[in-house]
Amino acid sequence: MINKRFKKLYSRLIGIIFVLFVISHFLPVPYQVMAPGIAAELSPMIEVENGYENQGEFLLTAVSSRRAVAWDYFYISFFAPEDRELTAISEQLPENMEMNEYIELMAELMEESKLQAQAVAFRQAGYEVEVSGEGAEVVEVMEEGSAYNNLQQDDLITAVDGKEVEMAADAVNIIKNREIGDVVEITVIRDEKELAFDLETLELEGNEGNPSIGVLIRSRGLDYNIPGEVNFDTNNIIGPSAGSVFSMEIYNQLIPEDITGGQRIAGTGTISLDGEIGRIDGVKYKIMAAKEAGVDLFIVPAENYETASQFAGDLELLRAETINDIIEHLENGLQS
């Protein structure tokens, strides 16, 4: 009789555990799982009209992000695996902004990144390029940022530290390349008046390690004239962090010699109109994705180099501050 009861209780316990296990794989929690994403060849995604074909490849790298379920929360919290982590959704989204609005803003920054990459690549290849914009429009001001009670929604940022801002990515790149605690001068147009604010760069929750003044911005009045056609097929990839490798892929199709030397070269980093390469988030996971893809060299922004070197292992890193750093390194490799 005792054995029968024990077997019955044991069966029920196993059943409950099984049901909880199944539920844990479907029950969402207010976190996202960050993990290595894709390392994808750019030649199928980018086509320069009448461009050259090459043997080597440039690859973009991305971070995978998905909604966490209860199982993810328990597993990652308990085992702390190196290849994934949890981030609170509330830390990812600015206050009063819905996820679809944030995704739309990231998609706009991706389009700007493509434009800047084209401009930089064509200029490096010796072409005349004209790019202009009215500046960066403030979409949202966050309470925890230094811009709060200073900048306002619809302000038009026209300069940062005296450096002209024609599009949102210009302002983002300048501020991201400052140190946390630095003071930056933000020049804006508000009600047809020019105003200047000295704002401290802060490390905001959910954006650790990155200097910020606590605003979301988008470009206003963007216009460009590039002497060639470039077609992109980047599907659902959003954000500005592939700008540097976009530039290199376009440049490599514009010049007769394959600057890769037949190598597979992955990388990351934003690009500004003057060719500066800016820091990005998630470099650890991008390195992991590149190693999985078996690349020969990884291009990393100077500001991310220290972190990248901790996870690179045998993967060769190229520390780059500007697009010229990449071109000079690869040209030297071709000559040696």
Automatic annotation (TrEMBL):
- Family matches, as SMART domains: PDZ (SM00228)
* Record-annotated membrane-spanning stretches: 9-27
Q: Show the GO MF annotations.
A: ATP binding; ATP-dependent peptidase activity; serine-type endopeptidase activity
Does this entry carry the keyword Protease? no
**Entry-linked InterPro entries:** Lon_proteolytic (IPR008269), Lon_Prtase (IPR027065), PDZ (IPR001478), PDZ_sf (IPR036034), Ribosomal_Su5_D2-typ_SF (IPR020568), Ribsml_uS5_D2-typ_fold_subgr (IPR014721)
Q: Where is the PDZ domain?
A: 125-192
Question: Keywords on this record?
Answer: Membrane, Transmembrane, Transmembrane helix
- What does the entry give for GO biological process? protein catabolic process; proteolysis
The name this protein carries in UniProt is PDZ domain-containing protein
Source organism of the structure: Halanaerobium saccharolyticum
